[in-house]
Design a protein that fits this description.
The protein is α+β, with helices and mostly antiparallel strands and 150 residues long. It contains 4 helices and 7 strands, in the order αββββαβββαα. Strands 1, 2, 3, 4, 5, 6 and 7 form a 7-stranded mixed beta sheet that branches. Bound molecules: 2'-deoxy-5-methylcytidine 5'-(tetrahydrogen triphosphate). 2'-deoxy-5-methylcytidine 5'-(tetrahydrogen triphosphate) (523) binds next to β1, β4 and α3.
Length: 150
Amino acid sequence: LALKVLQARAEAVSARSRELVGAKVVVAAAIVRDGLLLAQRRGHPERLAGGWELPGGRVEPGEDDRAAVARECVEELGAEVVAGEQIGPDIPLRADHLLRVYRAELVAGEPRALDHPEVRWIGSDELDNLNWLAADRVVLPALHDLLDPP
Ligand code: 523
């Protein structure tokens, strides 16, 4: 019986490490300017259309998380940002993906909706009313702290 327990434990540990090694990272940017947060409404895919998110996307193989934040903001918003601290926890997405949100400072360009139908600057009073994607909802407390420092 002890052996069976040990084998089951070993299997659980290796499943967990496969998960950690195999997890693909999606990054997102929390861009704050003048007390407002930049959010964008998704147009695709169908399953996510109409949901609001922090701009971002998949980290490419070999790419640094913060470099991915900067690249995605150029692609989606036509704006340059510098990524700083991670805010909130790593958030599991479906399958073997996880979402990491980084604070990002706008350094050049005016964000425009290049890839999705709409971008909007949101005040802290509007934060909870937006139809956020489930994963982004997890960082709402951290976003409140960013907009209204405690
Ligand atoms: N999320 C998510 N929140 C959030 C982002 C940027 C992404 O929940 N703020 C999810 C949505 C998708 C997955 O992460 O299921 C990948 O995001 P996506 O489609 O923005 O990443 P891209 O642009 O790298 O995707 P492809 O170009 O389709 O590979």
